[in-house]
Amino acid sequence: MFDQPLTSPPAGAHRRTFRTVGELAGVRSFAESEARAAGLSDQGVARVVLAVNEVATNAFEHTAAGCTVTIWAPPGTLVCQIDDDGHFADPWAGRVRPDTSAERGHGLLLVNELTDLVRRHSHTGGTTTRLHFDRS
């Protein structure tokens, strides 16, 4: 039920590629701009920025080529997709609370709490993480 292939983003989706952790401010700025353009409230914008930042940070930390962030707004939803060249081994990460003594693994849980839906698919080219935010 997890790790199913995802459809391609629509042709009109906005896309930016980020190569280094030094570009995280650009990732956040891009996510904020797109969320505001989609009409999200200030609280909704903050949720988008935080969730996209967390997934992008993981991409910079665990992969070599950075990430591509693609954002589009179908009716009632904002979708933020983060693609990287890494492979995700644990389909439950972010869905199950890590042990309280764990120093790592809390960020993806936060992402799942901030979004209305998280879909992730690991494939031969890497991992696609898709975050859905309700705009209604």
Automatic annotation (TrEMBL):
It holds the Pfam family HATPase_c_2. InterPro entries: Anti-sigma-factor_SerPK (IPR050267), HATPase_C_sf (IPR036890), HATPase_dom (IPR003594). It comes from the Bacteria. Gene3D superfamilies: Histidine kinase-like ATPase, C-terminal domain. Coiled coil: none annotated. Keywords: Kinase, Serine/threonine-protein kinase, Transferase. Residues 23-131 form the Histidine kinase/HSP90-like ATPase domain. The keyword Nucleotidyltransferase does not apply. GO terms for molecular function: protein serine/threonine kinase activity. This is Anti-sigma regulatory factor (Ser/Thr protein kinase). It comes from Nonomuraea muscovyensis.
